[in-house]
Amino acid sequence: SLASRMHRRQWSRIPGVTALGNWVLAGCSRVAEAVALLGQLCWEVARLVHEPRGFPLREWSATLYKAGFLALPITGLVGLLIGGVLSYLSALQLRLFGAEALIVNLVGLATARELGPLLAAILVAGRSGSAMTAELGVMRLTEELDALRVMGVSPFRRLVLPKVLALGLLMPIVAFWASMWSI
User: Fold this and answer.
1) 56, 81, 98, 172: which has the fewest C-beta neighbours closer than 10 Å?
2) What local confidence, expressed as pLDDT, does residue 2 receive?
3) Cβ contact 128:71 at 8 Å
4) Residue 134: burial class (beta carbons within 10 Å; 0-12, 13-18, 19+)
5) What pLDDT is recorded for position 170?
6) Per-residue H/E/C for 90-148
7) CB atoms within 10 A of CB 56
8) DSSP secondary structure string, 4-44?
9) Residue 153 has what DSSP assignment?
């Protein structure tokens, strides 16, 4: 007991080290959770390849519609506005050097490489990702996920996998759409 009290006293003198240790442990826990989620996703994709009959096409098509088709107008508008602002600001700077002809190249390369995919990712994550998270949170709160488990249905395969696969298909299309409108 005296040794343990002295040990506690010694650590209480260094609160920064304790806080850093707690922060590192929490980070390691988050990494472990992310790896577990990725592992479960890989497992469900492998099961889907082996047994495709149980795939929820209705959930997949609903996600394609909600996260893809309904996101196109706002993504196009934001892409158009960002492209206009980028070309205007670039024109002001390039005019100083007599290189106004390079505006098209600058805007085209910047949006195709960086801005189009970034805008698409931000808008889809902010718009569709938050809606999906809220939907799953409400289902957890109302114990619908537990009901699916009791019925023998994997909530991950029924709810998460179709959303991930739909977003994997949609993101290149939405990124191209945003880049097209920016250019």
Assistant:
1) 98
2) 56
3) yes
4) exposed
5) 92
6) HHHHHHCCCCHHHHHHHHHHHHHHHHHHHHHHHHHHHHHHHHHHHHHHHHHHCCHHHHH
7) 15
8) HHHHHHHHHT-HHHHHHHHHHHHHHHHHHHHHHHHHHHHHH
9) -
- Cα(38)–Cα(33) distance, integer angstroms: 9
Q: Is 85 exposed, middle or buried (0-12, 13-18, 19+ CB in 10 A)?
A: exposed
pLDDT of res. 5 = 59
Distance CA 125, CA 6 (A): 50
Residues 6+ apart with CB under 8 A from 41: 156, 160, 161, 164
Distance, in Å, from the CA atom of 165 to the CA atom of 60, rounded to the nearest integer, reads: 8
Q: What is the mean pLDDT of each run of 10 residues along the chain (183 residues)?
A: 58 72 92 94 90 87 91 92 90 86 87 89 88 89 90 87 92 92 90
pTM, full prediction: 0.76
What pLDDT is stored for residue 163 in this prediction?
A: 92
Give 159's DSSP letter.
I
The C-alpha atoms of residue 92 and residue 115 are separated, in whole angstroms, by 20
**Token code pair at residue 109:** 């390369």
